[in-house]
Description:
By secondary structure, the chain is α+β, with helices and mostly antiparallel strands.
Amino acid sequence: MFIQQTDLFRGMDKDFVKETYDLTIKDTCKEGDVLFSEGDHATHFYILLKGRVRLGTRDTGQVVHTVSRPGEAFGWSSLVGRDVYSASAECLESTKLLKIDREDFQEILAKDPTNGLYFFRRLAEALGERLINSYSSLGLAQPSEEHRTYGSSLTLQQSGSEIPKSIAL
């Protein structure tokens, strides 16, 4: 079960992961296929299995991010309270992915709030990492060390390790 090895699902309860996997739809797309367009109703989120997907804005055509790492998730608008996608997704080559229905997944999250909390923490970490990478690719100033250590302190708290005063929340 591939999704158990992704950053979003690694280490989570096997039943939670299996129930999520059972509602995934495997999809294969060709170069140039558009998975969703900016402004479309956000109905699914995706996990890349193989290939590359360009996330970009419609107005400027600017590439926001290129999804290229197997296990990387995108289409998060469907999970974070947005009704529409904030970017468009276009396959840059033959691509395989898992597609997960927003409403079905929200039901699973509601039934298992503990794993739901872990999932959204990991999602927040992934969003933060993507934001930092965007700063770098745009040549903008990097977040301060204080801001970069926040995620580390969450990890330390979760593991039960003592948090140094310099990064305590």
